[in-house]
Structures are given as structure tokens and as C-alpha cells.
Automatic annotation (TrEMBL):
Family membership noted in the UniProt record: Belongs to the short-chain dehydrogenases/reductases (SDR) family.
Reactions listed under catalytic activity: a (3R)-hydroxyacyl-[ACP] + NADP(+) = a 3-oxoacyl-[ACP] + NADPH + H(+)
Protein name: 3-oxoacyl-[acyl-carrier-protein] reductase
Keywords: NADP
Organism listed in the record: Friedmanniomyces endolithicus
Length: 291
């Protein structure tokens, strides 16, 4: 089995049809931001990509753009917090992929901040479920397509944050959740790597320009299943203090935030044949911050 896998890796290194040619990928939260860029990059490298997002219109737009550019994508929208949706997502992905799934990127999520003494049970439970429980359930539901001894490349990427690596004031729920995915990653790598060759890695992002790091006053929000609106972003005053004058991003050696495309490129690298001997690791994509 090992020799067969090495031969397949060597063949892929020529990249005649893209680094992910013939693979089928689910990218959750891919209606916008890092997820959408990840889906586009995967499609550019030959993968058939499933756009999973709670916003059906945005998911369709990403899929339509990929298909119009010559790639292959389908939108399968739904709520990650709905267990029935996860079952449907796996079923429809396997149908789209002619019976196979090679890649899962657990990217969907948002922040619901609050200082410890004011964080509600609802805030806590929602964020833990969204970033820990539901990614686990998705991986579990897809297990029949990963626990396969055919030598084909299979990879799972769980998205984390520097909040999970170092903690962050006002984000006890998010910090715990993002720390937790690293344990899930390592367990997948240890359980499914030996017999099935499945790789699992975590990508932890620092300051990436998305709706989660924009000014809260810009009005971005998500709606919980029961209809509550959760404001996203950083309050303008706090954001301005962090980015004041010449001190802007002074703790980032590269001196700037990252773009969604740069973040997505790191995910592409991790699932690509270039990282074929990397598993169970956490890649920090921070511009050098917290080194």
C-alpha cells in the first residue's frame, strides 16, 4: 500500500491537470471569505468542490462562478447546526463525486464574543457546537468515504485561530473551541492514518481581512437558528486602537494583515501532494505574529 501511495504522489507532482485533479472536496462556510477563496483555488487545481453555506444565494453564486470559469462545483446549502443537513451534505457530495469524498475543510463558523462573567449559556453552547461538535459529526458521517484502503489521497483540515493557540480576551467560548479542534485533528490523524492513509491537519489563522475582523459598525451579522442576530467584527474604537498610526500591526513581522486568498492558499498547500507527509500538525498562518 505504501509503495502504491508513493507512486501516486510522484505522479501527482507533475500536476498535469492540477494538484487536486480527480478529488472531491467539501468546504464548509464557503459562501464568502476564506471558504469561498478555498473553493475557487481547489477548483482551479482540478477538484470537484461542494459549496456548503447557510446562505443559499451566496453558495450558489460561488458555485456558479466556479462553473463559469471552467471548474466543477455544486452548492449544497444548509445549517451546520442541523444534524439532518450534515447527513444530506455527505449523501449529496458522494453523489456529486461519483461515490467518493477526498477532502473536508471544516471552515464554517463565526464569533459570538463576551467577557467571561457576561457570556451566556447560549453564546457558549452555540460556539462550541459550531466549531467542535458539528465538525466532528460531519467527519463521522463521512467516515465510510475516508476509511477506504485504495491508496487515494484523503485529507481533513480543521480551521483554528490564534485565539485557540494563545487565548483572547472576550473570546473564552471561541478560544476553547478553536483549541479543541487541534485535538480532533490529531485524533483523526492517529486513528485514520495508519490503515487508510488519511491526513488531518489544523490551519490556525491570525489577522486575516474578513467580516470577523472588519469594523463591527459595518453591520455584518449572522442569524442563529432561533432568529437572533449576532453582530460580527471588532468595535471601531477598539479596531482603531489596535491599528493606530505607525503602530499598525507592529506585532506582525510582515507588517500587515493577511488576505482571504493568502489564507486559502495555505489550506490548498496543506491538502496538496506537496504536504503528502504532513499530518497531525497545526500550521500557523499569522504573518509571523506569535512566533
Amino acid at each position: 500500500m505504501a509503495s502504491k501511495r508513493v507512486e501516486q504522489i510522484a505522479a501527482h507532482l507533475n500536476f498535469p491537470k492540477g494538484m487536486l485533479a480527480g478529488q472531491v472536496a467539501i468546504v464548509t462556510g464557503s459562501g464568502q471569505g476564506i471558504g469561498a477563496e478555498t473553493a475557487r483555488l481547489f477548483a482551479n487545481e482540478g477538484a470537484k468542490v461542494v459549496i456548503s453555506d447557510i446562505d443559499a444565494a451566496k453558495a450558489k453564486k460561488v458555485a456558479d462562478d466556479i462553473n463559469a470559469s471552467g471548474g466543477q462545483a455544486v452548492a449544497i446549502p444548509g445549517d451546520m447546526l442541523d444534524d439532518k443537513y450534515l447527513t444530506e451534505l455527505v449523501k449529496k457530495t458522494a453523489e456529486f463525486g461519483n461515490g467518493k469524498i477526498n477532502i473536508i475543510v471544516n471552515n464554517a463558523g463565526y464569533t459570538w464574543d463576551g467577557v467571561i462573567h457576561k457570556t451566556t449559556d447560549k453564546q457558549w453552547d452555540t460556539i462550541i457546537a459550531l466549531h467542535n461538535t458539528q465538525p466532528f459529526k460531519l467527519v463521522r458521517a463521512a467516515s465510510p468515504y475516508f476509511r477506504v484502503k485504495d491508496g487515494a489521497p484523503r485529507s481533513i483540515v480543521n480551521i483554528s485561530s490564534t485565539s485557540g493557540l494563545h487565548g483572547n480576551a472576550g473570546q473564552a467560548n471561541y478560544a476553547l473551541a478553536k483549541a479543541g479542534v487541534t485535538g480532533l485533528t490529531k485524533t483523526i490523524a492517529k486513528e485514520w492514518g495508519p490503515a487508510f492513509g488519511v491526513r488531518a491537519n489544523t490551519v490556525a489563522f491570525g489577522f486575516i481581512m474578513t467580516r470577523l475582523t472588519a469594523a463591527k459598525e459595518e453591520g455584518a451579522f449572522v442569524t442563529t437558528p432561533d432568529g437572533e442576530k449576532v453582530a460580527l467584527g471588532i468595535p471601531q474604537a477598539q479596531k482603531a486602537a489596535r491599528e493606530d498610526g505607525d503602530a499598525a500591526f507592529k506585532d506582525i513581522p510582515l507588517g500587515r494583515p493577511g488576505t482571504a486568498t493568502e489564507a486559502a492558499s495555505a489550506i490548498l498547500a496543506v491538502v496538496s501532494p506537496l504536504f503528502s507527509y504532513v499530518s497531525g500538525q497545526t500550521l500557523s498562518v499569522t504573518g509571523g505574529r506569535n512566533m
